[in-house]
Structures are given as C-alpha cells and as structure tokens.
Amino acid sequence: MEHRKDLDVLKGFAILAVVFYHLGILKSGYLGVDLFLVINGFLIIPSVCRHIVNGDFSYWQFIKKRVIRILPLIVIATFCCMAWGFYSMLPDDYENLSEYVIASNVLSGNIMSAISSSNYWAAFNEYKPLMHMWYVGVIFEFYVTFPLIIMLANRCKRLITNGFNNRTGGGYFVDNQSFINILLIVLFAVSLSLYLIPGVSGHKFYHVQFRYFEFVAGGLVGMNIKKLRFKNAIVSTLTYILLVLTICISLFTFDVHSIGGVQTVIGATNTPRPLLLPNNVLVVLTVVFSSLVIVQNNEDSLVNRFLFKDNTLAFVGKMSFSIFVWHQILIAFYRYSFSSEITIITLLIYFAAVLALSYVTYKLVEQRIKPTNKALIGFIIGDVVVSVAAGLIYLNAGVVRDVPEIDAYVNNAQRGMHIAYCDRIYSYDKDFPSNGKPNVLVIGNSFSRDMSNVILESKIKDSINFSYIYKPNPSYSERIAQADKIFIFGSKSSVPEYLWENLKNENVEVWGISTKSFGISNGAIYWNHNKPWYFDQTVPVNETVLEINRNWKQEWGEYFIDMMQLAMVGEDQVRVFSPEHKFISPDCEHLVRGGAQYYASVIDFESIFDDILIFKK
Predict the structure, then answer these.
(1) In this structure, are residues 470 and 423 in contact, taking their beta carbons and an 8 Å threshold?
(2) Domains of the chain, each with CATH number or no CATH
C-alpha cells in the first residue's frame, strides 16, 4: 500500500485529541483512540487477508514485527516509570504502578485496567502513569486473534468448497474478495452488536471483542478502497468537518477561561456532563466518519489543499505512538509529584517535554530498531528484567524504604495492610451480646466504616458492645431495636423510615456522619519528605465537600459529627498529618490506623456517650 500523508495527518489529529483529553481540556478527545483503531484496521487487515489467501502468510513473522513495533518503547517507558516511582511514590501507589508495569510489559494493560479500575473516568486514574496502556493491550490482542480467525475461516472455506465440488463434480467457487468481505461484515456485525447491547459487559471499554467493529470498519475500507473511492471535493470536505466536530464535540460546552485552573478529573471537569450525545453514539459516528474520510483520499478536497500541505501535523502523526506512550506518563507524574494545577506555563513546558522526548524515541527507537531475532530477544530480556523487578516490588507491597507516616517498613512490609485494617470492621456485622454494656451501632458505607475504626480506637471501646451494618434493610430491625446509640453516614432525610420506627425508645440518639476529603493525592505531599517542614503541610479544602457537610449539619443539628471541621486548619486548609506525624488518610478519603487514632483523640466522645455510660477518664 502506498504511503498516504492524509493518514499521518489523521493520526496527528487523533493523538492531539487524546492528549487534550488527558489534560482535561477536551472531554470528547478520547474518541481519538477510536480513530486510531479504524486507521489500524485499514493498514493491517488488507495485508493480512491478502497474504493468508495467497498462502504466503507467516503468523509468527507477523507477530514478531508487531511485537518489535510495540515492545521496545514500552520497556523503556516502564523502566523510566519504575525509576521515577522509586523516589517519588508512596508504597500503595508504587505497588499499583508495579502491577501496571508487568501488565504493560506483557502487552495486557487492558486486562489490568478492567480488573483494577472498571471506571476509566475515576479521578485517581489521573495519577496512574500507565493507565493508558489499555490501548496497547487491545491492539495487540487484535494482532494475535485476527490472523487466526482469518486462517481458520480460509481453511474451512477451502475444505467446504473442495468437498462440495468433489461430491457434485461442479465448479462451485466463491472468490476470495467476496469471501473476505462477507467474513469481515459478520465480524463487524457481531462486535457492534456486543458493543451496543446493554448489560453484556461492564468493561466494554477495555476488551477487544467490543472493539473489533472499529478495526474491521477500517479493514473493509482497505479491502474495497479501489471500488469505493470517489472524487467529490464538497463531500470530502464535509466528511472531514463532521469527523472533527464529532471528536471535538465537547468544545461546544467548554469554558475557555478555565484553562490554567485546577483539573482534578479526567475529561475536563469544567465541561458539563453528559456530552451532547451519548458515548456509544459518538463512538459509532467516529467510526463512520473516519471510514468515509479514509475512503475519500481526495486531493482536490479543501482539507487536502490546505491542511495536508502542512507537514507539522503529519510529522506529529508519524510520532503518534511515541507521543501516546509519553504524554500520560509525564502528566501523571507531574500531577502526582508536584501539583494538580495545570497552568498555561505548565502546559507549554509539558508540550515541549512531550514533543522532545517523543522525537528522541521516534528517531532512536521506532525508526532504528528493526524486526530481527536479535532485537526481539534483547527486548524480551529487558522486558523480563523490568517485570521481575516490578514483581519483587509488588510482592513487598511497594515498600522500598521505611515510611513511618503510614506504618510501612521494608523489613515488615505486608500487602493489603491498610485494606485489612479497614475491612476488619466487616467482622462486626453481628448481633449484640447480652452482657449489660451499652450497644453502639454504626450503619453505612466506607465512611461509616471509618467512623467504626475511630470508635474502636477510642478509650470507650471496652465499655460498649459494637456492631456494624454496611447496607441496612428491614431484616436488621431487631439489631436496630437493641441499639442504645446509632451512627449513620449521610443526610438525615436519607435515613430509611424503618430505622426510626424500630428505635428502642425516644431517648436513643441517631448521629449523622459527614463526608470528608484530604486533597486528591498525597504524592505531592510525599515529594517533600526530606524537607524540614514536611509534616506541616496542609491542602486546600474541598468546597463541595464543605457545602455537603453544611447542608447535612442543618438537618442533623447538634447530632452531627463533622469530620472535616475536626481536621481543618484555619478556614480554607485541611491538615494532612496527625500530631503523631501519621497520614490521616493515605488515599485522601478513608482512614487507616493513624487517621482513626487522630479522630479518636479529637472527637468529644465524653459528650456523645455521657447518656449511656459512665465515661472513664
């Protein structure tokens, strides 16, 4: 296939859309990935099908070329991530990075993402340097499976055709072009149906079977390009415009004045949700318009006349894989280690760094490394070395130095230590014993679980019977009726009616528990761990959380525990460390032992429990 400059331009446009998406500027920029998949199918499928039908296709040579195309840059990038994370990351985050390094190095980042984070738009993903490697996993699974499907189908076709002709003596024959087209249409229809049918899977974003129709759409265009291509400058220009508008649809609701502010959620927090059209509709439109654009390689179109004469965007497209690999790594480590605030100066430095680093790896890695056995073996060895190192760090819970502020020590590292501490509360989902002590019941989600740990770290713990309910329902009415005091997370209006109806008596107090937030990530806090003022750091208060708590406090009145107020320093800052130099919340939302002990020391339990027990000083 002859080189097409317009495809380089399309890839340049697609990678810029993805970069702007991860910066929080272009909420619909993720559609650039869908454009990449269509182009990938256009470039790969016709060649694979032609060689298989002709009988000269080597599956292992094909896979080797694809691996050499992808793996070297992945190994270099994951090594850099591990090196940077060694100095800058807290143990839990470094442990998570190690998982992603291993998954990325075996070209299965999509499976890792589906397992660890079903919600791609979750805020914490912004701080994961390798979260975007799901895309590499999807395209590699396509490279592995597609030739096998075509080879199997071609073999079956030959067997059926030969058997039919032997029995009938006829000359029954289906030409190869028609056979491949029919097969591709079937694959397209099955994959698109799986993608559109609701409830088939909660992880459609990450799995190749739900993405096949995008590859195949490009493949159908590639197989029939000579028949489909037509020259109409107006239609061609209109199609380009529709593709650009689809991928940039969030610009219609984007507040340009917000550029330079703090971006905390992937997909532009400063644009209203939802988008003008549902996500699945936007994906299908992107596939349709990008396929039409590829068909209409019309030199007379207005786009080709003006845009395609600019070599800058085309060169960006040629470097698109390097840009894709590095862009998220750089912005994630910046957000993690320095600040979630992305100013105009930050953007300029960021773009310069991404382009410079991508240019170097494009020239020295992508263009120079040839698909030889020596190169393959060399990078597989490098892959294994980096993955083994990541595996050892993962097994040691990401602890590479003592971090007393979260009770993590190299010689006593335990995976899941914080989870085990938090989840111990679920063992308290049991009825109260009959021993004469007051019964204290806590109801609700993980924020109530935190309150449970606070109570069990307080000096009243031995003076009460404690019970916990995660999801209340009427079956717990008897336990509710036995409680002398109840704590529940949320607004008072959300408390189910049966709880009030089953109280032991009118003197039983029901207390509301507030929500809380201690920033977005402690990475930027930990970056300063060698500074003398490390433990004096605070973070800006989350105004949304404060507003929620103010509203809940109005409902609960005096029977409300405002966890945020108890941690605030002044009017607009929240403390990060307890006086004992422990992180109050390693994940910025939930408490582990240090945080629970801090709240146990500042909550006035003497006043709260003075009606049901003699407080022991």
Answers:
(1) no
(2) 5-395 (no CATH), 421-608 (3.40.50)
Please provide the distance, in angstroms rounded to a whole number, between the alpha carbons at the two ends of the chain: 83
Model confidence pLDDT, tens digit, residues 240-263: 888 989 998 887 655 544 444 444
Pull the structure tokens for residue 157: 């076709």
Per-residue pLDDT tens over the stretch 472-502: 899 999 999 999 999 999 999 999 999 999 9
Distance CA 26, CA 199 (A): 28
Rounded to whole angstroms, what are the CA distances from 532 to 536, 537, 581?
9, 10, 13
Alpha helix stretches (DSSP H) within 488-582: 497-501, 523-526, 543-556
C-alpha span between 384 and 395 (Å, rounded): 16
Going edge to edge, which strands form the sheet with 568-569?
538-540, 573-575, 568-569
Residue 174: what residue type? V
Q: Is 197 exposed, middle or buried (0-12, 13-18, 19+ CB in 10 A)?
A: exposed
183: buried, middle or exposed (CB in 10 Å: 19+, 13-18, 0-12)? Answer: middle
3-state secondary structure of 443: strand
Largest CA distance in the chain: 101
Q: Which two tokens stand for residue 406?
A: 């979260």
Tokens of 27: 């909420």
